[in-house]
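Revision sheet: structure tokens.
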Amino acid sequence: ARIDYFLQDWTYSRMLKCANVLKRPENTTRKIPLSFVKHFADLRDFIKTKDNAHLVTHCGSLLGWYRECSIIS
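Predicted:
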């Protein structure tokens, strides 16, 4: 792990809350359409190619946030 990258990313971080609970009921409808997920991933990849781009999560995982916020199931 690159501690210097982590410390730099930390300065750009902020809290992103999601109203969902960790386990959604089976009959819950998605808030974000599945068709959007591919575009979201493309945007993520594009941002990471730019200088000073910071895509970081703390106190949890980005995968967990995606799942909780209905980006993935």
